[in-house]
Specification:
Order of helices and strands of chain A: HHHHHHHHHH
Helix content of chain A: over 70%
Radius of gyration of chain B: 17 Å
Number of domains of chain A: 2
Strand content of chain A: under 5%
Structural class of chain B: mainly alpha
Shape of chain A: flat
Distance between the termini of chain A: 32 Å
Order of helices and strands of chain B: HHHHHHHHHHH
Radius of gyration of chain A: 22 Å
Helix content of chain B: over 70%
Largest sheet of chain A: none
Number of helices of chain B: 11
Number of strands of chain A: 0
Oligomer: heterodimer
Largest interface: A-B, 77 and 72 residues
Shape of chain B: globular
Largest sheet of chain B: none
Structural class of chain A: mainly alpha
Number of strands of chain B: 0
Number of domains of chain B: 1
């Protein structure tokens, strides 16, 4: 499926289930997402990890509602519990099966997102491993001077922003010197097309979701 | 599409980079969140850690608005941070992007209400207040807050406001005053200060 269409569909699902309270629908979405993930050969280990990571927040939401909720708190506790997992698995069905480069290409070519946004974010995203390393460097440099930099230390963010300013200007210059012109029309090497199949899948998926929300008499 | 012209490539990369940096720093808070959540869960107060840390997660938007001083900087800054977090495989999937927009709009409103003129305590107080209100409105639906007892709602609201003020107000102010003192902000305002 076209990456832009896929992300749109996942966003619509996330938005709609935020306002519905149907446990079975959430569970159905989770099951469908797992089937989709398995069909794309996502390792079982990753799936197991997706089940474990949200467990604490999910139990938290459940217990808050179960103990301190009003009205039908038992039901609503389970709604929130399953909703978290529905977010996680539908989200994973997108992120684990979509190439970031393909998404950027598709957003630029199919959704007419200005190229500077698509490539600008891509450039920053691709630096992530170096940024991870840089955070460790900042912390180590602090430790050498006897300063422990934690997430509440302004100096840590200050240095991070300094590096961001520096790198953003270097990257922008590098892109410009390689022929990137802001707001100018571009030709494309990797062409992403929208097929009839994409439209059918998107519209079919959205319709099915509405049937699930409004028509199926879930108990 | 006039707003597109206000944004230079280096601004966009800058906001995205800040998003990645902050995202990686915030990863270190996950264990705090998990431990606190586990402690508060038996009392049915496990949203408290979420409320305590929420100000931290809203910081990229506030800093972006405060630093760049372009209309829409908060929304874009927070949104880009959330996109990067989602692509990283953040645990909340696509709903991260929705939260990002909600938080960004919340922070932006504060600067809008002060007409993009008050980059001082007033502006920060306004953005703190609007971020708290807007994100709380969203949690009424998303996290089922609408179904909770009133005293708990009030408690959550107060804690959230304090967190927004501590991180979005005090910490943001501390960071930006470091930036101002080092005179680096001029060079980031490519739109306004170069000519």
């Amino acid at each position: 499926m076209n990456p832009s269409f896929k992300i749109l569909f996942v966003l619509i699902i996330a938005l709609e289930i935020s306002f519905t309270s149907i446990v079975s629908l959430n569970v159905a979405l989770i099951v469908l997402a797992i089937i989709y993930l398995l069909a794309h050969r996502v390792p079982i280990k990753t799936l197991a990890w997706l089940l474990i990571v949200p467990l604490i927040p999910a139990i938290g939401l459940w217990s808050t509602q179960y103990i301190n909720g009003t009205g039908n708190n038992d039901l609503f506790a389970w709604v929130l519990f399953t909703r978290i997992y529905a977010f996680v698995f539908t989200g994973a069905a997108f992120t684990l099966t979509t190439d970031v480069l393909a998404l950027a290409d598709s957003l630029e070519q199919n959704c007419h997102l200005p190229a500077k946004f698509a490539y600008g974010v891509l450039a920053a995203y691709n630096l992530a491993p170096r940024i991870k390393h840089e955070v460790q460097v900042i912390r180590a440099a602090g430790l050498m001077r006897g300063q422990t930099l934690s997430f509440w230390s302004p100096q840590l963010y200050f240095k991070a922003i300094l590096i961001s300013i520096n790198w953003s200007q270097n990257l922008a210059q590098a892109m410009t010197s390689h022929g990137f012109v802001e707001d100018a029309p571009r030709t494309h090497f990797r062409i992403v097309r929208v097929h009839t199949k994409d439209w059918l899948l998107l519209i079919g998926g959205i319709l099915l979701l509405q049937v699930g929300i409004f028509l199926v008499p879930w108990r | 599409m006039k707003w597109v012209k206000d944004w230079y490539l280096s601004d966009i990369i800058l906001l995205a980079l800040i998003g990645v940096f902050f995202g990686i720093i915030f990863l270190g808070t996950n264990y705090v969140y998990d431990i606190l959540t586990a402690v508060f869960a038996p009392l049915g107060l496990s949203q408290i850690p979420n409320e305590i840390l929420l100000g931290l997660w809203c910081m990229p938007g506030m800093i972006a608005g405060y630093m760049l001083r372009i209309k829409g900087a908060s929304v874009l800054g927070e949104f880009l941070a959330s996109v990067v977090e989602m692509l990283f495989g953040g645990q909340w999937g696509a709903s991260t992007m929705i939260s990002g927009v909600v938080q960004g709009v919340g922070s932006e409103l504060g600067f809008t209400l002060t007409r993009y003129k008050h980059y001082d305590w007033l502006g920060l107080a306004a953005t703190t207040a609007t971020t708290t209100i807007v994100t709380f409105g969203w949690d009424l639906a998303r996290n089922g807050y609408a179904k909770l007892q009133l005293w708990l709602l009030l408690l959550f609201f107060v804690v959230r406001f304090c967190s927004m003020f501590a991180f979005g107000g005090l910490l943001t102010r501390a960071i930006t005053s470091l930036l101002t003192r080092s005179h680096v902000l001029k060079s980031t305002h490519t739109n306004t200060n170069v000519n």
